[in-house]
Amino acid sequence: MEITFLQALWFLLIAVLIGGYFILDGFDLGAGVLYPFVAKNDKEKSIVRRSIGPVWDGNEVWLLTAGGALFAAFPAAYATTFSGFYLAVMLVLFGLIVRAISLEYRVHDLKWKKIWDGCFFVGSLLPALLLGVAIGNVFAGIPMDAIGNYSGIPLLGLVTPFTLLCGILGLAMFLAQGASWLALKAPVDSELRQRALKLRTPLQLIALVLFVLLTAYALFAYAPSMLPITTVLAWLFAALFVVALVAAFILGKKDKDLLVFLLQSGAAFFLVGVFAASMFPNFVIAAPGSVGPAITAMSAASSELSLAWMTGITCVGLPIVLVYHVIIYRTFRGRVADEDLNY
């Protein structure tokens, strides 16, 4: 079965949405995980919260949009991934909900501020780790029955050395993005910024080493079967990932905080590109011994009419979302000042 233009387009769009989420929510999840380690007093904690306060909820929209697009465009893939990863998905949602509540209550409920600080950390850590584990599973393959249902052990069956390494790589990337964001937003001479700078470079190096190890692991243990064009794209994205991280590392020594953050964000997007190109046109690989076949863009797609309508709606809605993000980030650009510490 050959893939159609609209099926390939929506595979690409979902990859872009996930890449957008890794960029936008990556830095505020990373900042949340770093929160107890870089912020040592109430003022520094307020700076961290304020740096992400105006943007975190808009950033999470990209994850919801990616899930909604997968449901509408490729319902069979959505059914398998969300049912198979049900407990993991619930943990991610639990983390995001607890994180949102802690951000809103922390400034109003000072008696419980340590509890809310802990919730902010845990609520940031769970999604940052589990999202990488989920991507590792769909790449490595999951056991499925004849109709595409997950047939492995709930949650525990999803944790393998490879998927755990994927999760740790994703966490390292989020932490490096969070450190880059805090270095960009914290006052220039603050100790908070200095702590973020000290963490940024080691985290970038850790992410780079993990990426090399994970690439070697994937090539030798799984040997993914790819089309010639996607093989070229996968290696191109891998090269861009390495170049972006190395450039961010070099520029970090010259106090180019904005360029470092942009390069770090680009690396996050290129990392998603590596996985997407390596998997195309598969959404979920069937693990060895599975009764059911792999779920592909062709087998899981909605009708061409549905995809056409979705494309038209996206042409209208996506520019509006992008304009919203441009306005928000322009409005709250610059470093956090003392008069901003009301979040």
3D architecture notes:
With 343 residues, this protein is mainly α. The protein has a single domain (5-332), classed as Formate dehydrogenase/DMSO reductase domain (Formate dehydrogenase/DMSO reductase fold), CATH 1.20.1630. Helices cover 75% and strands 1% of the residues. It is built from 12 helices and 2 strands, in the order H-H-H-H-H-H-H-H-H-H-E-E-H-H. The protein has helices spanning 5-38, 42-52, 56-73, 75-84, 86-106, 113-140, 161-185, 191-221, 228-252, 257-279, 297-300, 304-331, and strands at residues 282-284, 295-296. Strands 1-2 form a two-stranded antiparallel ribbon. Helix 1 packs antiparallel against helix 6 (113-140) and helix 5 (86-106) runs antiparallel to helix 6 (113-140). It is globular.
